[in-house]
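Hi there, hope your week has been kind to you so far. Do you reckon you could talk me through the fold, stretch by stretch? Thanks so much in advance, here it is.
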Amino acid sequence: MTDPLADVIQHLRPRAVVSKGISGAGSWAVRYTAFGLPGFCAMTLGTCRLMVEGSSGIELREGDFVLLPATPAFTMSGGAPLAPQRIDPDAAEGTGGVRYGRRDGPPDMQQIGGWFRFASEDAALIVGLLPSMIHLRGIDRLTLLVRHLGEEAAGDAPGRELILQRLVEILMIEALRATPADASPGLLRGLADARIGKALREMHADIARPWSVTDLARAAGLSRSAFFERFTRQVGRRPMEYLQSWRMAVARDLLRRGGLSLDEVAEQVGYGSASTFSTAFSRHVGSRPGRFGRQVGNEAARSTAA
């Protein structure tokens, strides 16, 4: 059976990892402006306080792991309360270590932090299905994965980019599947629900099938009305809205790769004709599929020439 979580991670195509050691001593506070990229950290020593915009503050301690699929503005601090030093994430790139607070002596807090990018142009659409913040405690393999990421990101060995890509994919899957079932509405909560999870897996396994809400309800073993209400509550989107969004994400990927006619793309994502698919694609993406394919091809050619 198809695994929707693996589908989503593979479609996001995480790339370009930046990772560094971060430490603090004494009293310190920093505020990062929002930058929208996926960010992560693993605490390896001591404690600090994390305040993510739009949520209450939490204490991070040794063994904790945090993943922010689309990092908003946040404040991190240690010791006595201070006015935070503002930091621009773009100016903070690099692999060197960072020290906050007192410069001399041993640190009170250490963590490995970093961020990466998604190659998919549909990242914002898919990230919207994930919790805005994942905070996990006591999962040693996540800290180990972050250590491996940091070591690989700091080096220049052959195969580095491929290893980083695979490590980030594994990191995301490990973190997401460890997320409690009572997470905010989205893909994870849907998959944790036995009935809705079955419908999601059926949907991902055969997106070309002309699904109706009745068909999906039957797959889930629920009445149509009960399924519609439960799917919307657990996933945060109506069933056909979710299906169309995923079909369009797959269609964009097929058009980006090239090699298929419009009829073939339409058939693979569940549309009976190229004209019906073209209308749906234009409404959803804001560009006709032929034009979208040409734009992607031109961008690829310019990138290769550069």
Remarks:
- The radius of gyration is 22 Å.
- The chain has two domains: 4-177, 187-300.
